[in-house]
């Protein structure tokens, strides 16, 4: 599988998940869609910001951006878990 096929496969999996869970009103699907949306939106914003000065970003910069945004998602999930289990809201 080449890079283009790999990217298309990932896109298809995400599209299928969103399509199949749209009519469902379950908390798990909503949570997953929320985290995916947050990650994608923040990556796009960060990429746009990083590429403004030079018009492009390197592969390593893109990976760094994705790692940073994944960490942010994990922290948000940990905060939500603490709130649900302990009633504690961290700042």
Task: Describe the protein's architecture and organization.
It is built from 3 helices and no strands. The protein is mostly helical and 91 residues long. It has one domain (3-86). Helix 2 (27-51) packs antiparallel against helix 3 (59-86). The radius of gyration is 16 Å and the shape is flat.
Task: Identify the notable features of this structure and list them briefly.
91 residues
SSE string, helices as H and strands as E: HHH
Gross morphology: flat
Percent of sequence in beta strands: under 5%
C-alpha end-to-end distance? 44 Å
Assembly state? single chain
> What radius of gyration results from the CA coordinates?
16 Å
Structure at a glance:
The chain has helices at residues 3-21, 27-51, 59-86.
Give me the secondary-structure topology:
Blueprint lengths: L2 H19 L5 H25 L7 H28 L5
């Amino acid at each position: 599988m080449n890079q283009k096929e790999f990217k298309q496969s990932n896109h298809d999996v995400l599209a299928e998940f969103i399509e199949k869970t749209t009519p469902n009103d379950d908390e798990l699907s909503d949570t997953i869609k929320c985290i995916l949306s947050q990650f994608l939106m923040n990556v796009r914003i960060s990429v746009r910001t990083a590429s403004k000065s030079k018009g492009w970003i390197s592969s390593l910069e893109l990976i760094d951006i994705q790692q940073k945004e994944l960490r942010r998602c994990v922290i948000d999930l940990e905060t939500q878990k603490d709130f649900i289990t302990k009633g504690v809201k961290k700042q």
